[in-house]
Amino acid sequence: MLCCHVHWQVWAMLEYMDDVLGRLFDYMEASPLRDNTYIMIMGDNGSELFDGEIITEGNLEKRMPSGMQGYKRAVEEGGIRNFLAVKGPGVQGGVVDSTLLDITDVVPTVADLAGVPEGSGGHLPFSGSSFKQLLLAMTRKHTRPAGV
Question: Which residue of 32, 66, 78, 106 has the fewest C-beta atoms within 10 A of its own C-beta?
Answer without folding.
Answer: 32
